[in-house]
Amino acid sequence: MKVFIVDIAKCNGCYGCQVACKDEHVGNAWEPYALPQPNTGQFWMRVKEKDHGQVPKVCVEYTPWPCMHCDDPLCKQAAPDAVYKRDDGLVIIDPVKAKGRRELVEACPYGAVFYNEELDVAQKCTGCAHLVDEGKVPHCVDLCATGGLRFGDEEDFAEEIARAETFVPQDGCKPRVYYLNLPHLFIAGDVWDPVENEIIEGARVTLTMPDGSVRETETDDFGDFYFRRIDEGAYSVRIEAEGFEPAERCGIDLRESLNLGDFPLAKA
């Protein structure tokens, strides 16, 4: 069975995969798998961009987002006569049987199915099945400049899949696109001495997690601290530095990545 591996740490947001998909499918009919993709309005492979944090502590997350080629695809449940799953795991919307089947668009929890108004047909990523049939990889994978997007047999990626994550909707459906190094959220801030007007390097910062466990770090040589790859929930932060009174911020209701701003410490 085939899988996609997406390493977010290697994605630099070049949008090469998105352009590659357009290059392969706009103006080209790859029957029996797909009719031509429209020039605009559809991205069978798209790059989702999300900003995390607030100035000056900001990072950008790029997430390549194709059809997830689910083991239990909801689109197939919606139209079992028009959608099928190949033996290699690729999910195909039949371009003939999907004529007029607008319900397929709403059935996909990932927003990966589109409707071609001109051709009156539901369409999506095929995993470049026509290339896979020739022993090649999907065009988006072939043109990924950083190696952040890969494709192949599930057993060849077993070690990576074991530590990967998937985007799973409430209804399940078992996606076969696996993501490495998803950033999740972060909490950040900086610590300084207002009397000397200097940052404080090496201050101990403790983060209490929603489950009561703790993580620790120290401020860097800019006085900054980060706690990365955390999820939504209630947090608290405590800061301690030799010669200073401790500072604490409780009741942090984290929904998006958060820059807590500066913590001025008073002399002990």
TrEMBL record:
The keyword Cell inner membrane does not apply. Keywords: 4Fe-4S, Iron, Iron-sulfur, Metal-binding. It comes from the Bacteria. SUPFAM superfamilies: 4Fe-4S ferredoxins, Cna protein B-type domain. Residues 2-31 form the 4Fe-4S ferredoxin-type domain. The keyword Iron applies. This is Oxidoreductase. It comes from Raoultibacter timonensis. The lineage of its organism: Bacteria, Bacillati, Actinomycetota, Coriobacteriia, Eggerthellales.
